[in-house]
Amino acid sequence: MLQPCIPSILADGPGTPWAGCNHRHTRYDEAMNQAEGTGVRGDEDLAREGATRAAFFGGSFDPPHLGHLAVARAARDAFHLNTVLFAPVGAQPLKPEGSAASFDDRLAMTRLAIEGEPGFAVSLADAPKQRSGGGPELNYTLETLEGLRAAFKPDLALYCLMGADSFWSLRHWHRAAEIPYAATLIVASRPGQPLDGLRAALPQDLTLEPSAGADRTASGIEVRAFALVNSAGKRAPFYVLPGLDVEISASEIRESVRRAHLAGPADAQPCSESVQTMLPLAVSEYIRAHGLYR
After folding, report:
1. Structural domain boundaries, residue 150
2. Helix axes 281-290, 103-114, angle to 10 degrees
3. Residues 248 and 280 sit within 8 Å (Cβ to Cβ)
């Protein structure tokens, strides 16, 4: 797999990781060509335009599906975000087996998935990095958030958006107790999720406290407000979006694609009709055209 020349946070534009490179990511280029003129902007453009409210939305996006879009739309509308940065990850420390699709493919699919969505942008903030001695370097969310903060203006309100499944593993992340102080956490939770479940996912140094009177409904989205407090007494806001009942599994989508391929001809639709409804059409077509997940 080709690697970006530098571990930059920038998306497309003249100051991107591709600038001055002798190679390009072919499948990423294909998606760029298909999405030209959509108005989807990258980190560099947003920093230059003075974005004041942005959310980092990292993950495998293997593949990006309608559940990801639903979570991002809810956060964008409820928190009046200028942008949501979709950042496919290079090497996740908690997934040593890696992703099923290459970074190139996941990046291209993510760009196609968000095409035409106001305020959504692809970010290379979590792109693959190379160790000085060779081989991939692990991506850590805290370091990525710190890099984003350095790229934007000091008055940027930076959020870190994640789904419930990602949040449940938070206590195992690298320097997890520091993450809420680098960016305000927004977690898309399931309806009726008890507080004990949220507390159980927190790093040992953090406790969860209600923020009296701070719960609200914004743009039709329910927002529950809390505070995270560390052992030194430092507080960080913490928000839960409890009304998002989006049951879509990327692993189930991949398995459905595999089964459909085994059961039908090579040019068949990549997955069952029910799973087709879980994917943006452009992503489904990309999966079929490039033979992914077979």
Report:
1. 26-241
2. 150
3. no
